[in-house]
User: Fold these one by one.
Assistant:
Number 1:
Amino acid sequence: MNEVTMEKIVSLAKRRGFIYPGSEIYGGLSGFWDYGPLGVELKNNIKNLWWRMFVQNRDDMYGVDTAIIMSSEAWKASGHVEGFQDPLVECKKCRHRFRADQVEGKCPECGGQFGEVKQFNMMFKTHIGATDDAGAVSYLRPETAGGIFVNFKNIIDSFHPKLPFGIAQIGKAFRNEIAPRDFLFRVREMEQMEVEYFVQPGEWEKGFEAWRENVLKFLTAIGIMRDSVHELEVGDGDRAHYSKRTIDFEFDFPFGRKELCGLAYRGDFDLQAHTKASGVELSVIVDDATGEKTVPHVIEPSFGVDRTILALLASAYTEDDSGEETRVYLKFNSAVAPIKAAVFPLLKNKPELVAKARGIYTELKKAVPQIMWDDNGNIGKRYRRQDEIGTPVCITIDFQTLEDDTVTVRNRDTGAQERVSTSALLQRVTADV
Ligand code: GAP
């Protein structure tokens, strides 16, 4: 087995239109990445699967899409203004800055001495409106959870849910990381997929166990192998300020075993804090007869979309040395593959073949939008191109198709080819999808 390196993944992602460095023509901007045409399809597939599994397929979940910028009072109440910080050190000689927990002794750039460790708040600050005064300061949200907690009462008032129930959100979050690194692993602008699941205080352990299973179920559904995910119980001193229990789900990235996503028990920290700061009671009726209320406790599964994409790319990247040249392919399952099938006319200068292939392509595309047309270069090259972007099947229309309405369907992983009738083609493609 050839080694899967970050260089190979980053290079393929750029070359084939998945992910580009942010602001590249200006020399790049550290911690920011842009998704290209295939990257955005991959990302949407992951987000749609998550939304389907955790919102649409359940009766106890409410989806929201809240503003990235909220009242700064909310971030004071949640403890982020005070506590969302990383330890920072600056080299006295070259002035480079590092996260204090990632360097030892001397400056790795110039060997200089470090100054004192300072706390650096990772929220991006901004001003609202045409004023510089301190009252207009707010922040780009560092987690999507914030927007969920401030809408808790709205969901209660609109839908009157009974415990347990959850509120889910997918959206951008921003962290001014001191040291962004490892491609999509640690970025400054990211997307998160988060659930705040509200339970009776005495039932949090049951909820926590159920969500632990759900996290693994989702990772398996998108094609991350169970044996490359490892659970880490986060110790007392290492948890976020709001958490009473956290499990990190770690993944074997090419640069080592690191956190992919997390599950936290936030207790009633957030609802109590927002109640106190806003003066608005955030509770739920637990007994209709008596009107008894409780402040629910919260279980929070939190997934980073970008980190998930990196884990998927690393899981899927495969090199096959059995032929004359090394064949590179992305072993995506059909659910996440950006393109579900590619359609080729065997030759592009034979009008009747092209017309037949176009007809098949158009029909398939009506049912499955993520279908690609390719008539460039020889069939071998077209297969290589589709392999590199992870397309599960390629469909070739040849002279036999004109006679008996069958096509060749070629499997990405095995290279095996079979003849399939055009009437069964959609079923064949969607069976894999
Ligand atoms: N609401 C809880 C929360 O935000 P977190 O552990 O700080 O918890 C959750 O972040 C997930 O978001 C992480 O497991 C990771 O997948 C992703 N994430 C956090 N910071 C990130 C960063 N700088 N770059 C990429 N992904 C990040």
Number 2:
Amino acid sequence: MNKKELWEAVLAQIQFNISRASFATWFKDTHIISRNKKKVIVSVPSHFSQEWLQNKYDRIILKILHSLDNQIKEIQYTTSQPSLEIAEAPTSLPAVSINNQLEFQELQINTETNLNPRYTFENFVVGPFNELAQAAGWAISKNPGVVYNPLFVYGGVGLGKTHLLQAIGNEVVKNFPSKKIKYIPSEKFISGLVAAIKNHSIEDFKIKYREADVLIIDDVQFLAGKDKSQEEFFHIFNALYEKNKQIALSSDRPPKAIPALEERLKSRFEGGMIADIGSPDFETRMAILKTKTQERRLDFSEKVLEYIASVVQNNIRQLEGALNRLAAYQKLNSQSPDIQIVQTLFKNLITGSTKVANYKKVIQVVSEFYDIKQSDLLSSSRKKEVVRPRQIAMYLLRENLKSSYPSIGRRLGGKDHTTAIYAYEKIVKELKQSESLVEEINYIKQRIYSSLDPL
Ligand code: ADP
Ligand code: MG
């Protein structure tokens, strides 16, 4: 394993051991920058995360590293920048290479593979919200059947699962022209099976999938409750897996959370790499808008794009929809809409968007952030790991929600109002002395506000 593969393997395992929010916060932009036999040096983006990894995750990281290579005995964290070799996958914006006939490409879907050439890695914008999934997808398309099998990508609607799975397929076609690739949404798999049973052609149906070198099944959550399809898929999965054929899957939720899915399938799905796609941050939304305007040779001012990126926050399909509306306006009026017009066009999107956090959100984010149970945070437990986060939650409730001290005390562990006052004042005082606490609380606030839906 080289450095990059080693770290990817560590990340894949860490994901199972900590909450999703902690993973995104602490492991984003980390890399192994060098290693010798016994020691690994990990680069991290800030002093803050360095401290955090050292104090909280050092043992588990070392344990995993050691299990992957038992010579490794020590980790060092550094904030120096990783060298360029890390950036192997294309992360920059593509040049304007796509022709004007993008719409027609929809018609060019390959009937053998079901791949649409429109979806590539080149036009897949990478940001913190999807980089793990993208990196894993990129890795398997360079080395199908070898690195992660299966790859299981999950995330909400319109966030790029289909695009990524299709890009994997297209990239494999490019790298290995002789490999047989099959992409299929699970609904089609199910209806194909029903038809095959009806037509007594079930053997042909099985062969078609068992011959694949790369089998990609989109939206596997729809297999829930379809016993016969699950049964057939289970056998196909095993047959391919045993022959080291690559399997890639997507779903709107992690395997564990798919209801009415047989345990044996869940455990197969969990046996490889699981990567989630979250919501894009502002910078990535801007990058996506710019890529799409370039692709389509549209021209809107930076201000207009910034406006769209700030009001359409968590779905890439909606970002595209917004661009379509602007393009339609431009065509009809033969002029580019200025910011006032854009604001009126999208008025309905922002009315009612009140960026106010609520009590539930604060509790949820704080407990996720510190990796403790909500019930512990709300209990009267005096355990050290809980007391501190509880004080921070109290501080946030007072500072951001202007909750009254008695209600804060009551809600968090049934405490007296004096406890809430004490916690608030303690954190206020510490904030004046500790840069890293300021940073820590900013992270939490960002998380509270960024996850609120403005639409
Ligand atoms: P999902 O399958 O998760 O519902 P899709 O893959 O269909 O989402 O994505 C919705 C739209 O957004 C598609 O047109 C896709 O090309 C685009 N898209 C999604 N993610 C990205 C990305 N990272 N970069 C560029 N375009 C994206
Ligand atoms: Mg999809």
